[in-house]
Each structure stands twice: as C-alpha cells, then as structure tokens.
Please model this.
Amino acid sequence: MECKKVLIIEDEKSIADIIQFNLNKEGFETETAYDGKTGLEKALSSKPDLILLDVMLPVIDGFQVCKKVRESSTVPIVMLTAKEEEVDKVLGLELGADDYITKPFGMRELIARIKANIRRTDLMNSLQDAPANVRVFGNLAIDLNRYEVRKDETPLELTLREFELLKYLAERENRVFSREQLLEEVWGYEYYGDIRTVDVTVRRLREKLEDDSSNPAYIMTKRGIGYYFRRP
Ligand code: CA
Model:
C-alpha cells in the first residue's frame, strides 16, 4: 500500500500527538492542525487521504470544517465526538462525515476505523474501471459495479455509504428491512446501536433521488418496521 496521509484536526495537543505517534508507527504520513481554520486550509491544500476531525475546535468548529471540505472534496472524514455529544453524531453525518468515533477511544479501534474508511475509498476508486453492470428502475440507472447512479441521464453525487444503502435495498426490491438489519448489513462492524444513522442516510438519499423527498417513489417507509426499495 502506498503511504497514506491523514490530517489530524484536534485542538488538544496531547491527543493530537498521541494519535500522530501511533499513525506514524503504523506507516501513515500525518499532518496536524490545532484549530479549525488552519485545519480547513490544510484539508484543501495538502490533499489528505483521510481527515480526523474533532468537533469542538477554536476559530471554526468541526461541523463548519466538514461542511466546507465537502463543498469540494469527497475525502473520507472521521469525526471525533465526546460521549455526551450524541446529537452531534447525527449532525456530523448530515454534513457529510463518513464515520465518527467517540472519545475516549482506543488506538487500535481508531486505526481500524481509519484503515476501513481508506480501504472503502480505494475500492470505490478502483471500481470506476470495472465493467458496467447497470440496472434500471424507472428513470433511475444504478451501476452496481462502478457505484454510479444516474437519474434521467444526470449523474447523482452519492457518498459511498448512501450508494451502499441504495444498492443493498435495490438488489432486494420490495423486501422490507428494519433499521437494525440495515445497520448490520450495510454499516457492519463499524456501528453499533445508533439506528438514527439509517434515518439520516435515507433522508439524504431521498433528497438526491426523489422528485419530492417527502413523498418518495423509490425508497419507501414501512411504518413501524423500516425501509424498502420499490420500482416506481
Ligand atoms: Ca476539542
């Protein structure tokens, strides 16, 4: 594996240092920033392969950094949240973060998450050369190999997770899945218990796919049970 660069944006220098030390030991290149403004500048100029982003930061907070980075980049973002910031996890995901990890965390867990997120991005990049495998549902064309979705010929910008959820449901048309099932099947080991993550991702997907996201034609809610994909 070529050397991957991780940008650590964390104002608690002792935490940033220990993360940096451990990532270097694992063979990652690292950069650090101790406030949101510097972090944002480095995120845009030094093109990291992944960003570790604390929520509570001086000058510009982690959410604003996340939002700004997402305007021009699909780099994986893992947010660092404090235990009591439950709500923040959901907000982070809404703003386009890929993953979050709760403080205090173990270094092995952090490194496993970082590797998993980089692996998924590498996988997605390599899939762009794969042979097409398009399935058409109404005015939606989903290329299951290349992770591309078009609506009326216009490509949609989905995050990897949004695509994985859409793919999972579309390949199993009309079957209803509970949030817990989706969390386990689509998110896998990285998540445990926070089913709101599924709702947030469904909402973001609908905003991109549906003509009217409050009256969806593809991703349907089965009240009290979960979600399913329907051919319109
Ligand atoms: Ca902080």
